[in-house]
Amino acid sequence: MAEAGKREVDFADRNETDTVKAKRLKNDPNSDQDNHNESASANPLFGFKTTTVLRDSAREKNMFIHGKLNDQDAVIILEKTPIREDTLLEIFNGSRLKLDMRNDIYSTYQLQPPAHLNEMKTTVVCPATEKHVKKYLRQETYLVQETGEDYRSITLPYIQSQSFSVQWVYNILEKKAEAERIVYEDPDQDVGFVLLPDFKWDQKQLDDLHLIAIVHRRDIKSLRDLTALHLPLLTNIHKKGEESILKRYGVAASKLKVYLHYQPSYYHLHIHFNALSYDAPGCGVEHAHLLSDVIQNLQADSQYYHSRSLSFPLRADQGLLSKFKDAGKL
Ligand code: M7G
């Protein structure tokens, strides 16, 4: 959905650019309006009005902002990107430096690198729902323990009525979005999947490598739906996902963590492939389940994920937390 939103902005702007150029050539007197249109066409975020900063981190160098873009609610995520080793020569030789202070053998500077090395990864969700805004708002979290019965009586009815749209997932599977980003596809409708970069990864360095494998089947919401019948699907993703990442990026299976989230944000089965050394948000023990463990648990007991209690964190404002509270489970 976010991707579709982004594309809409791009198409609209492309039309506007032509109009603006034509007017300028004719020396149109409405030049103020033209300047505005020109800024908007070069920059789809032009005129964004900030409502609140939902979350920011000096350490992670990112900021999550809620506001209005062309009168629509939007969430924008700004994130400074990691420094890449292959750009060091250009940084040292092509930057402007301003001395902050010097003391004995120590000195600090403000360094202004060439513009193309000073980019910020920017993610736009527009139009954003209230759920998107809440997802990014910093919140107190609580650990919930869900039995198989709790899943069926509390969680399942809740996610059936409340979960995020998975239209963006269907767009990928149907090649309506991100088709050019696909790294590998097994088209089999039973055990097949599409492997592509997660949109959190800018693909500029391997340190934070993050891909997702999205299954073609549309009947598996999450870990809870898995039984031994799905073992061919899971082992296929594990094997072919790792092979494709080795082939494309030269990263060996021993350098990857491959896991599922429970609870996920999107209830269409997908598996995360992350660089082992990368401390990705959501890969802690309270949220992530290693695919190799999932496979072994299902080999030992087909009903493992139907019957076992599973723990996961919920933020204070998440509706599911109130459902657990109402049921006296917290
Ligand atoms: P999740 O386990 O459902 O939950 O992961 P999380 O979002 O709480 O981690 C879904 C994953 O899909 C996340 O890592 C998102 O960054 C990624 N993702 C979400 N959207 C909307 C897109 C998208 O449009 N394209 C791609 N490539 N990845 C997405």
From TrEMBL:
Superkingdom of the organism of origin: Eukaryota
Keyword flag Phosphoprotein: yes
Protein name stated in the entry: m7GpppX diphosphatase
Organism: Oncorhynchus mykiss
Record key words, sorted: Acetylation, Cytoplasm, Hydrolase, mRNA processing, mRNA splicing, Nucleus, Phosphoprotein
One Pfam family in the UniProt entry: DcpS
Subunit structure: Homodimer. Associates with components of the exosome multienzyme ribonuclease complex, such as EXOSC3 and EXOSC4. Interacts with NDOR1.
Enzyme class name: hydrolase
Location(s) in or outside the cell: Cytoplasm; Nucleus
